[in-house]
Structure formats: structure tokens, C-alpha cells
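Subject: two folds for Thursday's group meeting

Dear M.,

Sorry for the delay on this. The cluster queue was jammed most of the week, so I only got both jobs back this morning. I'm pasting them in the order they finished. Each block is the input sequence followed by the predicted C-alpha cells. Could you check whether the formatting survives your parser before we put anything on slides? The first protein is the one we discussed after the seminar.
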Amino acid sequence: MSIAIVSVVYNRTDSLVRQLRSLERAVYPEPVTLVISIDKSQTTAVEDFAHSYAWPHGEKRVITHDHNLGTRRHMLSLGALFSDFDALIVLEDDITVAPAFYLFAKACVATYGDDPLVAGISLYQFPINYETRLPFSPVHASADVYLMQCAQSWGEVWTRNQWAGFRKWYDAQQGNFLPDNRVPQELFTWPESSWLRFHTRYCIEHNRFFVYPYASLSTNNQDSGVNASNSTTLYQAAMMQGHCAPADFRLPAAADITIRYDAFFEPLFLAGSLGVDPHDHTVDLYAQKTTHRRYLLTLKALPYGVVSSFALREKPMEMNVINHNDGADIFCYDTTQKATPPTPVDNALRYQYFYGEAFYKQRTMIGLAGCLRLWLQLIKNKIRR
């Protein structure tokens, strides 16, 4: 199984240098090819540096382009590398990696490379839900990975078979990204240059997942550039440190992984705890979905009959359902029954639940106007992939 590392670069030499330093510090049990793929920009500084750089862990290849491809076409062009490699570890230039990233990727390729349920492998673990900007933490189980229907661009692995399935579907779309309630509305705000929204939609339509680590093997430094007007630490993930062997990772077969999330960051494993039909319920704890099935789990106060309700106490939110923490903050409705809406959750309680005392301390230090300016800046820094 031949695996190459691919650094995807445009015009940020400093970002590339930082990434290469993190790659140099990683552990490789065998020589590894590094491919630096550079899109055409107004400077040759990146090309000059890439050609002069000496990769100490194996062969180095530099790919340049005569004209600007843009993010989507540049990423799609990487598929040509599967003529030489079985799997690709793809890193945008502002991504840095943990020392064990290659060992994790190698172990996952061996386990999930040909699994029909898996569309790709993520090195990155989301600290927040990028659709709502609220904290995200998956439920932990007796494995080092879980499944999610969000494709990844902040450190990902594709195998030849996984890419072939996606590319066949993508070509059939003819560039169209039509409205669909199954797809998070956030994706429709991303620019035409985004390839990632297509990959996520492919996962949704074919009911496939990316394998995600609980401990992140990459992080997003979010340097200012084409996809973000300002640098931010919002998407920095705490990375795994230390060395380990591929056999140390607990990687069950994908079909045996019960902890699964959809493209809205919502859990797909609560039907048993709720006592409802798994094919007739919708979980919408982040309140982003526009359609629902008969049974609806949400924090919203709606005019339907309440089947059960739970406190907003344990973290993550779904643990209150799993542990049957009685309360009146999270509601499971039967939407076929009309009723008076329950009392909605107090917004101050939500802030305290998600952010603890941080919001209130921040307000004390910089004032309400400062808080508003900070939140507006975070909104401006929304990712455009």
C-alpha cells in the first residue's frame, strides 16, 4: 500500500514552511513521498522555495500549473496521483500535523480503505460545529474513531477506491449544487470554488461516512488568504502528542462503529434511548434542519405533543438523552399531535451550558459593545471552502 503526502499550496510560503516543519517531526516507518502541488499565483516565491526544499523522509515531487485553477479544480486535479499511489494524505498549506498522523493514516487505510461505508478518513477532529459555531464534542465509545457524514479538508486521507466513487458521482452532477433539505444550508453559502461541499453532499446522498479520530491528528491554523479574510484560532484543534504504533489505534470495522453523526453534527444513535422508530425520528439539537420526521428531538419550543423531555446538563447534549436526565430543556415531540408549546430554554442557560462563565467574564472585561464586535468578527471569519 503506497501512501503519498500531498501539500496543496497557492501563494503562502510562510504557511508551507510551518507545515513542512510539522511534517518533518512526524514518525515514518518507511520512506514516504511528498508531493507539493502549487496553483498559479502572482508570485513565484512558493515555487522557488518548493524546488529548493529538501524533504528528509523520501522522494519529493513538485507540481506547478501554468494558469490558476482555483480551489475546486486544484483539489480535483489531485486525483491524477492515484495512477502512482494507493492513498493520498491531503493537507492544505495552513494545516499542521501531529507526530503520529502518518501512523494513524496508515492504520486507517489498512482498515477502511475498501470499506463501502467509508468515503474518506479525517485527521482533524472538530472542536466546534462549523455550521453554528457552537462547541462540538462527540460521545466517546471503546474505539479511537467515530463516523460522520461531513467530508474533510483540514487534513484528510483518500484511497483510490474512495476517490473513484466520489469522482464518478461528482462528474454526474455537471457542476450543479441544487437545493436539498438533506444538505446543511451552510453549504449553500460557500463559493463556487468549494469542492468540499460536493464531497459532503456525496456522503449524504450515498449514506457514506468519514472516519474521524477523537484526538485530532491535524489542526487548522486558518491563515488569511483566499478562503478567509482574517486569521483566527477558532478552528484550532488540540492535537495528539507522542509516538505510537499503528497497532495501538483501536479501529473496529465501520459497520461495528455505533457512534455516528450526520452532516448537521447531529447524533444518529438516539432512537433506542428515545424509544422511537429509528427511521421515523429527527435529531435537531443544533436547530439547523428545515424538515423532520414524526418524532423530533430539539431544544426549540414547538406546538407539538411532548413525548419526553430532558435537562441540558451533561455534555455533550445527547448524553442527557442517553442517561435519561429528566428536565425541561430538550424536548422529544410527536409532531402528529398539536399542543401548547412548552416554555423555551432561557438563552442565558444556553450560553452558560456551551461557554461556562467565559461569556460573562468577557463581557466584564471588554463590555457588551466589545462582545458584539467580537461576535461580528467571528461571523466575518466564516469559512468559505
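Second protein, same layout:
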Amino acid sequence: MNSPELFSRRLHQLRKRLADSGIDIAVITDDDSVYYYSGYYGYLHMDFGRPTLLVVSAEGETVLITPTMEQSLAESLAVVDRIELWNDGMGAEWREALPGLLGATAAIGIEPDLIPPPVRTFIDSIVEPKRYRDLTPIVSEMRMIKSQEELKIARHAGEVGIVMMEAGRSAIKEGVAEYEVALAATTAGTHKAAELLRTHYAGSQMSPSIHFMQILASGKEITMTHHRASTKALKYGEPVFLCFCGMTDFHRFKLGFDRTFWIGEVKDRSQEAAYQTAVDSQAAALSVLGPGVLAEEVHAAYAEVIQSAGFEYPFRCGRATGFSFLERPQLVFGDKTVLQPGMVFAVDGSVTVPGEFRAQVGDSFIITEDGYEQITDHPKTIADVILTR
């Protein structure tokens, strides 16, 4: 899985696309894209002021620029022609090699929305504006359709997410602190990820640890969409929202997965009606989801159910995922991308009553030749999400 041949193949395809687009050199700075093309991944790069760059020449070599402290990891993982190491405070650090690699006349491809400001500022000082090309369409189109290797990882990520949801659900009880629910979910997910890594990815250095902060909200805080699990104790009759967007991250592949629960009973019956609309809106989106459909058409089906029920216009129905939390396309008005087999999406159903209540359900799906394959699942009828024991 994820053999050097896979990354070499991607780099070959990238070089061909660069040549076809008149781009001489690509400077890739997004960590997820660096991994996608080279197999190299690290942690805390720009968070600690230490950029890693992948420089790909359409007709020359591929060079990884990374800190000296990452030498062993880079030499172990990176499928590149050369590694340029740099150290804190030594010479021009990561800037040292760039003038020679970028030359004086070459057309330079960058992803303008993803390049870190310090890197962009330096490259601006050595590259004239007329030399820039937008690399975004090439990278996003390549990453849009997942390979069979990626789809295998996506399915395994779904297995991790399902175990996490089951563990989180089991931990939700009156008097239990929110963070205890998060601990139960992350522990179960880590154990499942470790099992999958040992069984299917022998020799992988990927960590099984689930480390993203749990999105969890209960009671009146449920309207806080990305509230993190706190020390608050759960109360009888209150709703509890579990979101694993960002946490369902296996072998670097991210999925979306959400559920709303109640402890014991639904005390406010208006919440039940809103929840059912959320479930129905996801069902409407799924009735449209499939190859040949425009991304915005999925959103339109979902939004129609929500607004027809008298609720306010919702946020996007979903998004493509992969090695990044957010990829292209998005299921939202204005995105006219045609869905194709091999794309992976998080598809939500949601309703917001401002300041009072919010319900959401969400799952992840692979687009297939004749529809879709669901890769996360957990019961979501109102009877199923009222937890009585």
C-alpha cells in the first residue's frame, strides 16, 4: 500500500500536466499535497515556522526542501530525486536553494490560496509576477478522483469512524462529562486504526492515534457548531451532537461523520421535528447524489427540504474529502462540477433554529458508476437516537 511506485506514478502524471499547461516548475507547499505526490509527511511544519516545500520540474528533478531535524524521516519516506536540508538560523534556511531551483525565466506554478505567507513573500522577491501560474486546477483535479489505493484507505477510515461513533454513543449518559465521551471515542478509534494498520499496512509508519479535538456540544450549546468537548456534565433530556469531521482521519484520509442524540427523551418536541427535517434533507441529497450530477444539484435538493419546512437557508450540504479536510468540489450553490466515480464526499443533513437548537446528521460516500457507496453508517431514526440506557 502506498508504494514508491504509486508516488512515482503521480509525479509522472503531474509533470505531464505541467508541461501541457506551460508550467516549468511547481512549488508545492500544502502538507497534504506534498504527501500526495512524494509520500513524505511530517508534523508541525508551519506551526513551528519551519516550511517544507516540494519543487517539481516538468522536465527535471523533484526536490524536497525540509528541516535537517526531519532528515531520517524524509530519507525513509520521500520519493524524490533529492532532499535539500536546512537548519534554524543557518544561512538563508529554507530560502537557500530556491533561487537556483526556480531560475530566472521559468514559469512557476503555485497554489495561491494555500502557500504560507512567509514562503510567498520570499518567492515574490525572486520571481516576477508575470512568471506565476495557478497550480490549483491541476492539483485539485488530480486529487479529485481517488485511486483504488485511496479508496481502500477511505473504506478503512469509515470503519474507524463507525467504531468511534459506537463508542461515543455508548458513553453518552446523564452525569458523564463531555470530555469522557470524547475520550471513549478517540480510544476506540485508535484501537481500530491500530488493528487496521497491523493487518493491511505492514511496515507503515503511520500513527493510529486519533488526535483531533472532539467536536461535541450538548444542551443549549448545541447551536455552537464546532464547540469542543468540555468538562460540562451531560443532562437528562438534552440533545448531544457528535461530529467526527477531522477526527475520522485514518492513514491521513479524512471523512465526515455526524450524529445528534438525546439522553432519555426529547423534552422539547419542536427539536424532534427539526431533527426529522435534518434527516429528510440528507435523504433528499442522497436521492440526487451520483455520477453525472452537478455538485450544486445535490445541495439544491437538500436546501429545498429545509426551506420548505420553514427553516432558514442552510450552509453547504457537503464537501469532497481525501487527504485534506476540504477538497474540491463542494456541494453548494455555484459549484457546477460534474460528479464522477471515485470522488469521496461528506454529505450532511442539518437544521438550525438560531439560538435555540441545531440538528445534524452526516455520512461519507464514494461515488460509483451507478450511484454511491456509503462508508460510514450509524442508525439515525428518532427512535434510534434517543438513548434510554
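Two things I noticed about the second structure. The domain at 145-387 is CATH 3.90.230.10 (Creatine Amidinohydrolase). The mean pLDDT is 95.

Cheers,
T.
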